[in-house]
Amino acid sequence: MLWALLVASAALVAADDGSQCLSQGLTGTVYGSTEATLAGTNVDLTQLFGYVSVVMNPGVYSEWTSQMMTGMNTLLEKYEADGVVGLGFPCNQFNLEQPGSPGEILNAYKYLRPGNGWTPHQNFHLFTVTEVNGDTASDIFKFLRSACPAYTEELGSKASFYWDTLVARDLRGTYEKFVIDKNGKPRYRFAPNVAMTEIYPYIDELLAETPIQPTQFPGVEAGN
Hints:
Layout: H1 2-9, E1 18-20, E2 34-36, E3 42-44, E4 52-56, H2 65-78, E5 84-88, H3 102-111, E6 124-126, H4 139-147, E7 177-180, E8 186-190, H5 200-207
Parallel strand pairs: 4-5, 5-6
Antiparallel strand pairs: 1-8, 2-3, 4-7, 7-8
């Protein structure tokens, strides 16, 4: 019943392609850690308070790479003056779609997919390879999964998954997207096939909100 009410209240969320996160009363925030980038720098996510962000898990050998990586750059160009950032956590847990060292990964995006000299927008942070599912998943993705129901009950083929314990809220593939509000709370989750242009209305919605100034950043909290 609760899920039905949430879906009914979120008119923008497309059936089977997206879900609304259970952020009301949620403890913790995505903006509570420091993450290492593929370029060898560190990004303090606590500095993103007041920004809307789009989190996704890219994989260079995914069929969605060209569309989603160029789409992210276009999204960030559109919202460059509005306080929107992209947070990419490459993941090798789906069909081994993201192998390689940090330098190899950056070159693969630049010369292979999307190719043509592609580089990330200045507001698109690409972090080191991250596990998003299973017992060894990063705290950020445990937190995201605890807050955001899966958009479909179908898990897909276990043969393409490279982690041990499957649970209902696991990510289904590369290029899932989570839209995070100005307080670092996940608000929406989208399937890999959802185009970047389709999440513009959700970003507009969150940009119109006023963040609540926290007294301190509690950091991410692990969920199931």
